[in-house]
Amino acid sequence: MGRLIDISPRVSPVTAVWPGDVPFERQVALSLAAGDTLELSAIRSTVHVGAHADAPSHYHVDGRAIDAQPLEPYCGPCQVLEVRLPRGARILPEHLDAALGAQALAPRVLFKTGSFPDPDAFNEDFNSLSPELVERLHAGGCVLVGIDTPSVDPFASKALESHQALYRTGMANLEGVVLDAVSPGRYTLLALPLKLAGCDASPVRAVLVEGALD
């Protein structure tokens, strides 16, 4: 197996979450330092913390919860594409074409925008996807799209057009991945969501593998 590249941010109490959402908190029940026989803790957090997979139930009343999502979209051949746009701009199909060049489209695509540079400091002017781009990716055989920002839609969006395009096409997504140190190219993606009953998302430990898995 090739080298593993961790594309998940560290999750801690200072990890930025969507304004108004529940930040990560670790609650210690037993502690070795306090003389207990073992370390035991619980966590309280939004399920949209750090690198995470949305469930269709997050954005559509008829959508599946994360425990009902098929796992296949979250692991397999993947392509990292770098797109540099003005802050707040959506990625359009023509930006995909420019980033792809003569390359064939992979079944999973992660967009490196650099527009959410610090996972511990929330900024509202991040880049996002356009619904036309989602439709184009689906038409090209893509089963998952990811981005290095908190959402596939702009911060101020209420209609969530790109999320709705994901629902129409049946595509999976990843949000909040960290691609700063990742070069554009082909990898194998491993980013399985937890089997959280009824939940609208799940954190993932997203990893890229250089080359194909043996």
In short:
This protein is of the alpha/beta class and 214 residues long. It has three helices and 13 strands, in the order ββββββαββαβαββββ.
Please tell me about this protein's structure.
The chain has one domain (4-8, 47-210): Glucose Oxidase, domain 1 (3-Layer(bba) Sandwich), CATH 3.50.30.50. Helices cover 12% and strands 26% of the residues. It is built from three helices and 13 strands; from the N terminus they run ββββββαββαβαββββ. Helix 3 links the parallel strand 9 (144-147) and strand 10. The radius of gyration is 17 Å and the shape is globular. The mean pLDDT is 97.
List keywords for this structure.
single chain; 214 residues; alpha/beta; Glucose Oxidase, domain 1; seven-stranded mixed sheet; two-stranded antiparallel ribbon; 3 helices; 12% helix; 26% strand
How are the elements arranged and paired?
Elements: E1 4-6, E2 25-30, E3 40-44, E4 52-54, E5 75-82, E6 90-91, H1 93-100, E7 108-112, E8 128-129, H2 131-139, E9 144-147, H3 161-169, E10 172-175, E11 185-190, E12 201-203, E13 207-210
Helix pairs in contact: 2-3
